[in-house]
Design brief:
Length: 76
């Protein structure tokens, strides 16, 4: 299962926050972006509950993370 997580980070902490996210085992990619969200992370896990746990327990507590929006990727 894949998910795209859109992340708002505190001003001045975007690059550092993205680097923390890149180190997560489930993070396949993470990009700094411009627009309403500062970082886009692509996660991969076995189950939906794993995605929720990664976001709640590993991404949201990262210093600099202010808000997340998780979008599940659907195979077409």
């Amino acid at each position: 299962m894949k998910a795209i997580v859109l992340i708002k980070a505190r001003t001045g902490e975007v690059k550092e926050t993205a680097n923390f996210i890149r180190k997560l085992k489930a993070a396949r990619e993470a990009y700094v972006t411009f627009g309403p969200f500062d970082i886009i992370a692509i996660l991969e896990a076995d189950r939906l509950t794993d995605i929720g746990e990664i976001v709640a327990c590993e991404i949201q507590p990262i210093p600099g993370v202010e808000q997340t929006l998780t979008c599940l990727a659907v195979e077409d």
